[in-house]
Every structure is written in structure tokens, then in C-alpha cells.
Specification:
InterPro entries: EgtD, EgtD_Methyltrsf_superfamily, MeTrfase_dom, MeTrfase_EgtD-like, SAM-dependent_MTases_sf. A hairpin with a 6-residue loop joins strand 12 and strand 13. The protein is an alpha/beta fold and 314 residues long. The protein folds into two domains: 113 residues, no CATH class; 175 residues, Vaccinia Virus protein VP39 (Rossmann fold). It is built from nine helices and 13 strands. The structure holds S-adenosylmethionine (SAM). The site of S-adenosylmethionine has 19 residues, from helix 2.
Length: 314
């Protein structure tokens, strides 16, 4: 086991939390949202009518999968980044001709193991490898687990959690990880404020629960004493570049202990817990091209503009 759930991961979590909560504005890296509870909450968010990205991508995916299958050919090893519940991969595996392997990479270790245990019996001819890793750092696949031809898969809106500079870094690292390959990546350009507020601010209170769980996780794993009842969740739209930010806002001034430090909050001060950049196709293609990914095909959902990009690295 590696990642924040491992004992060495806890020291990194404490370092990142201290650094983020000592800055102005206060931040916490979004990757810590993803413990087992966070992953479970996200699965419920995906099923909620307000959360449009999952529905729009699922509507687009069958057509995309059959065209990708024709382009990449038989015997592919698929490597998914941030695989979560490993639901969308079923559409891809069903469309591909005799896929050889599926490597599911996620930071949420226990949830990842359970998702692969559910998936594997339905695909007895596909070698399944769960890889607990943090894709904000360089990732090496287990030797021999993925053989060419290789198809990378990064669905959902996860690329949006990166700033343009960080997205470039991720796309460059993915090229190193995958080697010569195709890469199917989702990107969401939606700018409709009402739709974004519903998806990221409401979703039946599940978004608030996902972000507030980060405080519970910090208290449990790092021994801090933050009062979860003193925070509420807000989704805020921001520009340059256009994005949705998740904030946990303090209802009143308070001080809490974290490691050896005291973290002070003014009344109304917030912690930014995640960011979702909305990447238009042209901008995203340019970011990928700068990292050596050649555009092959682009599919766009009529309703939301949600895009699936297929790239190739020779
Ligand atoms: C928004 S969910 C998307 C899940 C799924 N791919 C989908 O499209 O429905 C993000 C997923 O990426 C994982 N994740 C987030 N940050 C990560 C990181 N730095 N390294 C590896 N996995 C990460 C989370 O655990 C979660 O399963």
C-alpha cells in the first residue's frame, strides 16, 4: 500500500496540510478528499441529477468507445488514471477487441481494491492490476503489467483539478508512464453559472459532505481538533482561468491545533479544498500538444460541450 492511507503517507499529509493552512488564502490539496468515505460520496454524487458531467460523458462514451476500438486495434492494455468505481471502463472494455489488460490507478487504496474485485469476474480474459499511486507525481507501472498497444484513459473532469501549468505537467508525466500509446481524456468546458452552481454547490448536499469529510479525515489521521460544525461548503466561480473553486468557510473566528501548530481562522475565512478548471477543446489540445500528444479525434456532447479527446504519442 502506498498513498496517504499508508503511515509514510500520513507524514506527507501533515506536511501538505501545514503548508496549505499556513498560507493566504488557506488551501488543502484536493487529492486528500479521496479516502474510502470520499470515494463513496463521489459515487453517490455521480448518480445525482445535479451532477451533469458523469451523465453527459456516459451519454457520449458508447459511440466514442466503438470508434476508439477501431482506431487502436486488438489486444490493448488500458491504463486508467483516477479509476474510482471503475464503471466507465466497462463501456470501453466491452467495445475493445480482446483487451489484454486493465491497470486501474487511484490514490484511494481500499476503494480501488474493492472496485477491481467487483469488475474482475465480469472480464475473466482481461488481466486486472490495481495500482495505488498518486498521479500528481511520476508513476511507474508494475513491470510487464501493460504491454503495447497501450491506451491511457482519464475520464470525468479530473484534468480540471489541475491548473493549466499542472495539467501540462500531468500530461508530460502520463506520456512517460504510458510510453508510445493512445490517450483518451475527458475535459469539461461548461460555463453556465446556474448549471455549475447546482453541480458543484448542491448535488443534494453530497458535495458539501465530500468536502467536509476532509476535516473529519484530518482530525482522524493527523490528530487535529477542527470543529466540522464550524464550517460550511461553498462553490465559487472565478476567472482567469475560468474555474469553480470549492471552499470550506469558517462560520466564526476560531483556532485549532494541527501537529505542533495553531491554525487561526477569522470569521468567514475559508480553506480552498479543490478547483475545477473548465477547459475548452482548443486550449486543452494546445496543452496536450506542448507535451507531445498529437490530436487524433475529438467528440463533443451537444448538450453540455463535455469533450473526449483522443491523443497519440508516437
Ligand atoms: C472525480 S473522481 C473521478 C472518478 C472516475 N474516473 C469517474 O470519471 O467517474 C476522481 C478520482 O481520481 C482519484 N484521484 C484524485 N486525485 C488523485 C491523485 N493525485 N492520484 C491518483 N488518483 C487520484 C480519486 O480517488 C477518484 O477516484
Amino acid at each position: 500500500m502506498s498513498g496517504p492511507e499508508a503511515p509514510d503517507g500520513r507524514a506527507e499529509f501533515l506536511r501538505d496540510a501545514l503548508a496549505g493552512l499556513s498560507g493566504r488564502p488557506k488551501t488543502l490539496p484536493g487529492k486528500y478528499l479521496w479516502d474510502e468515505t470520499g470515494s463513496d460520496l463521489f459515487d453517490r454524487i455521480c448518480a445525482h441529477p445535479d451532477y451533469y458531467p458523469t451523465k453527459r460523458e456516459i451519454a457520449l462514451l458508447p459511440r466514442v468507445a466503438s470508434e476508439v476500438a477501431a482506431l487502436v486495434g486488438p489486444g490493448v492494455s488500458v491504463v486508467e488514471f483516477g479509476s474510482g468505481a471503475s464503471r466507465k471502463i466497462r463501456t470501453l472494455l466491452d467495445a475493445l477487441e480482446a483487451p489484454a489488460a486493465y491497470l486501474a490507478l487511484d490514490i484511494s487504496g481500499a476503494y480501488l481494491e474493492a472496485a477491481i474485485a467487483r469488475l474482475a469476474p465480469d472480464y475473466p480474459n482481461v488481466a486486472m492490476t490495481p495500482v495505488c499511486a498518486d498521479y500528481s507525481k511520476p508513476v511507474r507501472l508494475p513491470p510487464g503489467a501493460a504491454r503495447p498497444p497501450i491506451l491511457g484513459f482519464f475520464p470525468g473532469t479530473s484534468i480540471g483539478n489541475f491548473t493549466p501549468e499542472q495539467a501540462g505537467g500531468f500530461l508530460g508525466r502520463a506520456r512517460e508512464t504510458l510510453g508510445p500509446s493512445h490517450f483518451l481524456v475527458g475535459a469539461d468546458p461548461t460555463r453556465d453559472p446556474a448549471r455549475l452552481r447546482r453541480a458543484y454547490g448542491e448535488s443534494g448536499g453530497l458535495m458539501a459532505a465530500l468536502h467536509l469529510n476532509l476535516i473529519a479525515r484530518m482530525n482522524r489521521e493527523l490528530g487535529s481538533d477542527f470543529d466540522p460544525d464550524n464550517f460550511h461548503h461553498e462553490a465559487r466561480l472565478a476567472d482567469d482561468p475560468f474555474r469553480v473553486e470549492a471552499h470550506l468557510v469558517a462560520n466564526r473566528a476560531a483556532s485549532y491545533r494541527l501537529g505542533e501548530r495553531t491554525i487561526r481562522f477569522a470569521d468567514g475565512e475559508s480553506i480552498r479544498t479543490d478547483t475545477s478548471h473548465k477547459y475548452a477543446p482548443d486550449l486543452f489540445r494546445a496543452l496536450a500538444a506542448a507535451q507531445g500528444w498529437e490530436p487524433v479525434r475529438l467528440w463533443v456532447d451537444d448538450d453540455s460541450g463535455f469533450s473526449l479527446h483522443l491523443f497519440r504519442a508516437p
